[in-house]
Design a protein that fits this description.
heterodimer; A: mainly alpha; Rna Polymerase Sigma Factor, Chain: A; 2 domains; 66% helix; B: mainly alpha; transmembrane (chain B); membrane (chain B)
Chain lengths: 167, 206
């Protein structure tokens, strides 16, 4: 294996959480998530030469992953009827891990109903990007990023509430 | 629950580590991006066009062409090859372009959108440019085989205004049909990819 390829795969492995987060936010079934993950890695490899180390690899990777997810459309799997799973029940005990899992399950279920750009805004917000940084990544003004993010968060909140979870 | 709870759960989720990184780059292939589908579709058509060009070049060998028409036929054929080479080169540049995924999302979407639009417009213009070549080359073949009949028809049309009108209308209708078929084909084959990119672009517009 060439050293460039080795270096690339090592960087991907150490930042794989980014790809998983993006794929789970944009696609709802494991098959579609796997397709998107492959597409992201392919696009990252194709653009790897343009990574100039002016920013961290994870920042660059986030940008490529998001831009890929924005224009990724699921395969037409007509024969498979995907049924929406009901949200998990409230954990009976006060197990913090179970509570976190439940919160994430509600989040991922609700986030599927957002528009593509809204998903990108929420994703970057959860990654602690400032409004300015979100605007810079998406190519919109800081003010517009703030307004759009606020609307997306409000929408997400309503969706989670509709699923019967307190927000 | 609030957004801080989601952030906390999101960053400590073990699921995030469950990505299967491919063992080598060779295993990767692009599948679902509209622009990639567009590129693949156009690449497929390019092979059909190349095959058609080869067949056109062999027509005088298959069907007898009067020696007097051979030079005009192949002069047109070479010009047709030149136009096709230019078009194929442009298509190759589009096929090899990176897709601008490293730009800001808005710039990347605009680039993809205009790149895809440009390719489709090029595809259409290539088809229209080939029309006159096809017409003249077809006329040469007919002249070679049914020269007398064509001359009679010409004389008849010159003498009879109604026949001239019918012939002109047929020509215009044929050209218009080529236009309609090309528009329909590009819209049904590639239009959806443009609409997909446009829908995301509309979301991001300020």
């Amino acid at each position: 294996m060439k050293s460039k390829e080795k270096e690339f795969l090592a960087l991907i492995t150490s930042n794989k959480g980014i790809i998983r987060k993006v794929s789970r936010t944009y696609m709802d079934t494991p098959d579609d998530q796997a397709d998107l993950e492959q597409e992201i890695i392919y696009q990252l490899w194709k653009s790897f030469d343009s990574f100039q180390q002016q920013s961290s690899f994870s920042t660059w990777m986030y940008r490529v992953a998001l831009n890929t997810a924005l224009v990724f459309f699921k395969k037409d799997r007509r024969k498979i009827i995907v049924q929406e799973e009901p949200p998990p029940d409230m954990p009976s005990d006060e197990n913090p891990t179970a509570v976190k899992e439940l919160q994430l399950a509600h989040f991922y279920r609700a986030v599927q109903k957002l528009e593509r750009i809204e998903k990108a805004l929420v994703l970057l917000h959860l990654e602690n990007y400032s409004h300015k940084e979100i605007g810079e990544n998406l190519g919109i003004s800081e003010g517009n990023a703030r307004i759009k993010l606020s609307r997306a968060k409000e929408k997400l909140k309503t969706l989670i509430k509709q699923q019967g979870y307190e927000f | 629950m609030n957004f801080d709870d989601i952030k906390d759960a999101w960053n400590n989720d073990e699921e995030n580590e469950k990505l299967r990184v491919p063992a080598s780059i060779d295993q990767l292939k692009s599948a679902q991006l509209p622009v990639e589908k567009l590129r693949r579709g156009m690449k497929g058509e390019m092979y059909v066009q190349l095959f058609s060009l080869l067949i056109i070049g062999l027509v005088p060998q298959i069907i007898f062409l009067s020696p007097v028409f051979v030079v005009p036929f192949y002069t047109l054929y070479v010009a047709m090859l030149g136009v096709s080479a230019y078009y194929f080169f442009k298509l190759y540049v589009f096929y090899k372009s990176s897709g601008a995924v490293t730009l800001t999302s808005k710039e990347s979407l605009y680039e993809l959108y205009y790149e895809a639009r440009l390719s489709i417009e090029m595809y259409k213009s290539y088809t229209y440019v080939l029309c006159p070549f096809g017409l003249v080359m077809g006329a040469l073949l007919i002249l070679s085989h049914r020269g007398a009949a064509l001359t009679n028809l010409y004389d008849f049309a010159v003498a009879n205004e109604q026949v001239a009108l019918i012939l002109s209308a047929s020509l215009v209708t044929s050209l218009f049909s080529v236009f309609l078929v090309t528009e329909y084909w590009t819209k049904s084959s590639y239009g959806k990819y443009i609409r997909q990119i446009k829908s995301v672009l509309d979301e991001i517009k300020e």
